[in-house]
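Q: What does the predicted 3D structure of Transferase look like?
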Amino acid sequence: MIKHYMDASVSVSPLELDSDIQELGALERALSSADVSQPVPRYVKTLRQLRKASQTISCHRDEIKFGVTFGERLKELGDDFGLPAQHFSVNTSGSPLLVKEQVGEHLISPTHFENGAYFSHPHADHQLDHSADELPSIKIGQYVRFGRNAAVNAGGDVDIGDGVWLSPGSQLLRQDHDPYGRLSIGSRTVAMTRLPPVRLCDYAWVGREAIVGWNADYLGKASIVGIRSFLNTWVGDYSIVGDQGKVLQYLPFKAHLMETYQPSIEQTLQVSDWAAINSDWLMIYRDTPKRETPPLPAPLAEYLDTPGKKSVLLIAPSDNAQLQAFARHSLDVISSSRLPFAHHLQWAQDFGHKQLRLRADLDFSRLPFASAGDFHYRRRLGYSLIVANSSPVEAEPCRVYVNELARVLATQALLLVPVTDVLQAQLSVYQDLFHLQGEVEFDGASFMLMKKL
């Protein structure tokens, strides 16, 4: 019977349109108040007013002024509710930069909005009681460009780095319609702030009319999302991707330049001979000593040879050797430094490996999920193997780390973790999650081989 599945706490009541009630819904009533004091209606009202104002932008000076106005209005909102200064942060510093080339010139403006570019709020009727610290955080770096009619649906935390470009008509979606659990008519009621934060690293570029979906939580440094692509996963550093995040090209020469020299924004604008940079980089790469591919322990090799697609997460590998060992599989690498990334990407490009993603936000308390976000409705999804070359040295961070490893691993997947007293103590507590397969030697180090139950 259908009533068995109906929620008794949910009521559905018709409203009479010919009544004297002008505002339909709690949000409209809150916004019609002379003094909008609740955090969520104030957030909604602020973004609505800014969206309307962006439609009057007509020149470069207007674009720059609106960027300043956007930051000031968000700061005012945060100050009124006593939020930390970093909750809403828009960096509009810097002067407009006129770049003159051999032919022509172009203007690079401080963080600015072209005509019609806006941040919107998610549907919030049922979330009016959220406290101020539950409002999504918005952080925008220096010299960010929001193209004409670019849209950011700010239903979750948004962190945009320096030099990012959201091209005309592109969209960044941060609200959850719960499509797996609701039909279309009910999906208009959505959740705010439940989504994972999204981070666009420095110099990321979202192509014209591309859509960055709700589960895409990381766009790598200098990455490019192709025109009209739909993105539902995370994107590695120095990569060009198309629809569904499919890798089209790696950019190892850019990784070499940016990570070796750490150029300023002004210096990057003066670089034009990328062919020379690529040539110099290839000479460096060819002259760099290469380690032999480390042999896989027998139980690991046997597991990877079983039928089915395998995805591997490498945590802080020192060089390309471990990548070579798992060359037949989908590879994600997370580290705290981007210095090795040019070498990783060049190896992948030479090898023809188009399933490599790199990111440099290693946090033992928050590991990346294979499909991005925090989880997937298909719970069996997750990494087939994690090689953890690094781990915390204290007990409590290790406990959190073990929980994270369990979260992002698929059921029956394998885990290699360093043999340390602290990790062994924590893993012994989680015998219901992991089964110790024994100790193995891999790539010159001792690991505990664990299986997730």
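A (community wiki): The structure tokens above were generated from the sequence. The chain has a mean pLDDT of 90. The chain is about 25% helix and 20% strand.
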